[in-house]
């Protein structure tokens, strides 16, 4: 096929695409008539590009620029794509081992980090922000796979953290949180219970999470909303130990996880533990011993052998001031209730005597002795882990609390709008993968995921519509200096 230029009756120059068959010329397409050299150049370029597309052949010339037809006067700006973020998020998922997960799942994860929204809204945003199109039916097909994908994701996360962060199973942090629903209807999974979000009237689910000492999430489990959190640790930890054939393992958890039954199960399964102690449950004799030994000396600690393991207690003047302030506030509230019995409600430092309410002086005296004192239970002997090491490891629980804050604030894990079990569990799976990616970015770059996304949004590819070819042209943006620094830390391609 060739380009033919002929003069018209009006002395203009017509541009045509022609081909010859059996010595006969056939006009395949007429591109218009030019009245000056500029118009002629535009029509010739349009014809050249059309022939290239029509023939389906690539140019043999490496310098043949596909944007050769770009003339600003013939282009319209139609928006931007955040292709840089999309490519980088995909690269990070590949690095983590998630490259073989369903494409739609990977895209929903990228969207969850970039801008949290409902699943169907996320499909719209994927097209709007990245030009990626998925059909709704693809999402509905994905939901039944979430249970099998969950195990794959956890295995891949575990493999990655072993290779990249030298994880060796020696220490894991465990905690739970609640996620509420925007409804007041309960079912078998969505149940009312103790809410950590102060949404006790709305049904919820309980999510257990395990993270490494760096705060990297490697496993999770979903429970019905009315499950007592102390009943979740043993099955989750036992399953993890069994599945991964772990020989030496220490779990760190807060005081809500401790019970005589849990301690018994941990010892039975040879699982070491460091858990917070509920000091108010200690006997008067033990409290008196602790008070006498520590004597308000900053940083001093004591170790006492108990049926629940070694009880380690330490005193802090900073904690003392905080505890004293909180206690005095509660006592003032209790005094007000005692003086105004009509305003009766159950408070920590009140008790009933017949029909009268009075201050619980015995509990106040007990609490005063415990001001500034924090306790921990462990089965690790002092020869293996000193008091200081036990306390330091327990204080690293903030890492799992930080993970929950990321998931709830930056990833907006809740409220949940799904009402069927499979979509609910797919939602948690998406948020879990997004949390893994977010934590990896934070650990490598030192920046929060919020700052990472904000920097990514500064890099936008311009979208132009070329009216000469009726094609969309993408003008790629250059990464900011800050993003180049981030890419270097991630060891990502520039």
Q: Assign the CATH topology of the largest domain.
A: Transposase Inhibitor Protein From Tn5, Chain A, domain 1
Overall geometric form: elongated
SS strand fraction: 15-25%
Alpha-carbon distance between the two ends: 41 Å
How many individual helices? 16
If strands are numbered along the chain, what order do they take across the biggest sheet?
A: 7-6-5-8-9-14-11-10
* Major sheet description: 8 strands, mixed
Number of strands: 16
Average pLDDT number: 85
**Overall number of domains:** 3
State the share of residues found in helices, binned by percent: 40-55%
Task: Enumerate the spans where pLDDT stays under 50 for 5 or more consecutive residues.
Answer: 58-67
Based on CA atoms alone, the radius of gyration comes out at: 33 Å
Look at the structure and give the CATH class of the largest domain. Answer: Alpha Beta
CATH architecture of the largest domain: Alpha-Beta Complex
Secondary structural class: alpha+beta
3D structure, described in words:
The chain is elongated. Helix content is 43%, strand content 21%. The protein has three domains: 2-69; 102-294 and 303-309 and 380-451, Alpha-Beta Complex (Transposase Inhibitor Protein From Tn5, Chain A, domain 1); 323-367, no CATH class. Residues 58-67 have low confidence and may be disordered. It is built from 16 helices and 16 strands. The protein is α+β, with helices and mostly antiparallel strands and 494 residues long. The strands form four sheets. An eight-stranded mixed sheet has the order 7-6-5-8-9-14-11-10, with helices on both faces. A three-stranded antiparallel sheet has the order 1-2-3, covered by helices on one side. It has a three-stranded antiparallel sheet with strand order 4-15-16. Helix 2 (83-96) packs across helix 3.
